[in-house]
Write a structure and sequence with these properties.
single chain, EmrE-like, mainly alpha, transmembrane, cell membrane
């Protein structure tokens, strides 16, 4: 269950990171409220997950999901570039997450 909570927290991290773009520097009320709410839930789920998972592993996976996911969503929504170098870096992040999961004792 902790791994599921962590995965959901990571997906929500993508949501609030992308939401920051839509707040336009926190000048738009609805996107700002939604972004802050999503961030709160993401932190809440991360907090629940670390009750049963090592903090270093959980935090690294949470940020990795958020980082890789935000890059990919940025490519889709905002037309950001996805060249071989960026794709390689995302692959390294994904491999690191897989490694942490395989090495975790929980």
């Amino acid at each position: 269950m902790a791994w599921l909570l962590l995965a959901l927290a990571g997906l929500l991290e993508i949501g609030w990171a992308i939401g920051l773009k839509y707040t336009e520097g926190f000048t738009r009320l609805l996107p700002t409220v939604l972004t802050i709410t999503i961030a709160f839930v993401s932190f809440l789920l991360l907090g629940l997950a670390v009750r049963h998972l090592p903090i270093g592993t959980a935090y690294a996976i949470w940020t990795a999901i958020g980082t890789a996911g935000t890059v990919l969503v940025g490519v889709i929504l905002f037309g950001e570039s996805l060249d071989l170098a960026r794709l390689s870096c995302i692959a390294l992040i994904v491999l690191g997450v897989i490694g942490l999961k395989l090495l975790s004792t929980h």
